[in-house]
Specification:
535 residues; alpha+beta; FAD/NAD(P)-binding domain; 18 helices; 20 strands; 35% helix; 23% strand
Length: 535
């Protein structure tokens, strides 16, 4: 039945009882939603790649594609008036350099008491690939100085109590044997910990059980600064274009397997369509909604649950100058990985700051600058039941969020004082961070499951890829975008010219550094020099 005829027939049904009207209205919505959408015409040439969102993921993908083939036409669309204003912004980013040196949730304790470091190794491997690519971009003069976005900051893990001390020591013994973690230090000596992180130890009684590990070669990354300079470098290319204040409102599949992307210019409210051979959805929390609009079958398996964050931030020079370290603790039993507390030295737009958190916040927005309707608009007939199942099976997460939302100012100060005993509230200001949308997936066997990580969703033919999820996020951007290229540009990826270019940009490409200690140390020495790292 034609869509117009469907609408007329069902409208005729809405004449009598209100209940019938409501039922008929519901049926109308469902039937109209199933009507095939007509792709809007575009008078512009088809672009090779259209990227949605101007965060670190799109910046990385755009620059990789440009370096591989400068003749590729690339367009990036961002709804805000500048790049890197959502999760990529340093103040919105909970990690700023996940190397797995200090994040205890990446090294779980197994039932037999051993420590599993496989995930940590994978994350470190991915971060080392990022460092190689950044070093290449430094050589290509994308940055006046690498210190704009990357600085040496030791990474520490800090725990209290006999049980946690035993865990940390086993973790250290498992990791220090691996070439990635050569140089990791462990101590239970309060004086040594005080040398590593003075603010952590001042004001303690001296009778508590405490232990720490340290990796001096940790770094802090300002992904906002990194992203801005990558886009500044891409502006020199005649084939790469960035459109700010442009909101992607729809995506329609064309008969020739290209995509018609409908864009709204937020400055004049005018809409236009762009045809693209390939579409990447890297819009942070909004990626789920855009993925659903695409209509690809793969999108039906996914839902999302938004969780916001807040930090206590100090930029008092006399305070932040006294400690240079990222100090990560251990999440309490029953709380999610996102709750891992850390007292964190950051470089934000070139200025040093001290952050503590994160504290969870909640709204139905999928973006910090999003809409309150984001969550309800994401609910579909395919993900409704999985989302209910996740809520039922993750009551610990619900309790954690409720507890966080009910925290008073003094309770937040008390949480800070566990890591900085002499902290005073007047030295810190509360700051709202970015929104994360945790992935909810409909698993055929397990039902709805909540995933704490990064998820890649692609159409069967690879013409569209969306990136969902959160941590480790930006830290593995290069690896994630290479995975996108492997899906969507697989034919060109195998050519000699692209393979040669990738080897030049990332010498370890195609190899595992974790399996080749000599290559790892050789590359690490080179990237350290180019990125001006101090370890």
């Amino acid at each position: 039945m034609k869509c117009g005829l469907r609408f007329w027939v069902l409208t005729m049904m809405m004449k009598n009882v209100m209940g019938i009207r409501i039922i008929a209205a519901t049926i109308i919505i469902l039937l109209l939603a199933s009507c095939p959408r007509q792709a809007p015409s575009s008078g512009r040439p088809t672009v090779d790649a259209l990227l949605i969102g101007a965060g670190v993921m799109s910046a990385t993908l755009a620059s990789l594609l440009h370096e591989l083939d400068p003749e590729l036409s690339i367009e990036v669309y961002e709804r805000l008036d500048n790049v890197a204003l959502e999760s990529t912004a340093a103040i919105n980013n909970a990690g700023t350099g996940h190397q797995s040196y200090s994040e205890l949730n990446y090294t779980p304790e197994l039932p037999d008491g051993s420590i599993d470091i496989k995930k940590a190794i994978d994350i470190t491997e991915s971060f080392e690939l990022s460092k190689q690519y950044w070093a290449y971009l430094v050589e290509e003069n994308y940055f006046p100085s690498p210190r704009i976005f990357i600085n040496s900051v030791p990474h520490m893990s800090l725990v209290f109590g006999d049980t946690n001390l035993a865990f940390l020591k086993k973790r250290y013994e498992a990791m220090v044997k691996h070439p990635f973690y050569f140089g990791m230090e462990y101590t239970e000596n309060p004086k040594v910990i005080s040398e590593w992180a003075p603010l952590v130890m001042e004001g303690r009684t001296g009778d508590e059980k405490i232990a720490a590990t340290r990796m001096k070669k940790g770094v802090d990354v300002d992904f906002g600064a990194l992203t801005r300079h990558i886009f500044d470098g891409l502006k020199k290319s005649k084939n790469t274009r960035l459109f700010l204040s442009h909101d992607v409102v729809d995506l329609v599949r064309n008969d020739d397997a290209t995509w018609s992307v409908v864009v709204k210019n937020l400055k004049d409210d005018k809409r236009f369509a762009v045809n693209a051979k390939f579409v990447f959805i890297g819009a942070g929390g909004a990626s789920l909604l855009l993925l659903q609009k695409s209509g690809i079958p793969e999108a039906k398996a996914y839902g999302g649950f938004p969780v916001g964050g807040a930090f206590l931030v100090s930029d008092k020079p006399e305070l932040v100058a006294r400690q240079l370290a990222k100090v990560y603790g251990k999440a309490s039993v029953g709380t999610p990985p996102m709750s891992v507390p850390h007292l964190d030295t950051r470089f934000i737009d070139g200025k040093r700051a001290l952050l503590f958190g994160p504290f969870a916040t909640y709204s139905t927005k999928f973006l910090k600058h999003g809409s309150w309707l984001d969550l309800p608009m994401s609910v579909t007939t395919s993900n409704f039941i999985p989302m209910l199942e996740v809520g039922f099976h993750n009551m610990s997460l619900v309790r954690y969020l409720v507890g966080q939302l009910l925290m008073t100012e003094n309770q937040r100060l008390a949480a800070l004082q566990e890591y900085f005993p002499n902290a005073q509230l007047e030295d810190f200001r509360p700051t709202i961070a970015g929104q994360r949308v945790q992935v909810i997936k409909n698993d055929p066997e397990k039902g709805g499951i909540l995933q704490f990580g990064t998820e890649m969703v692609s159409s069967k033919d690879g013409s569209m890829v969306a990136l969902l999820g959160a941590s480790p996020g930006a830290s593995i951007a290069v690896k994630a975008m290479m995975d996108v290229i492997a899906i969507s540009f697989k034919d060109r990826l195998t050519t000699a010219s692209w393979q040669q270019a990738l080897k030049h940009m990332m010498p370890s490409y195609g190899q595992k550094l974790s399996d080749n200690p000599l290559l790892f140390h050789e590359i690490e020495h080179k990237t350290k020099k180019l990125l001006q790292l101090e370890y």
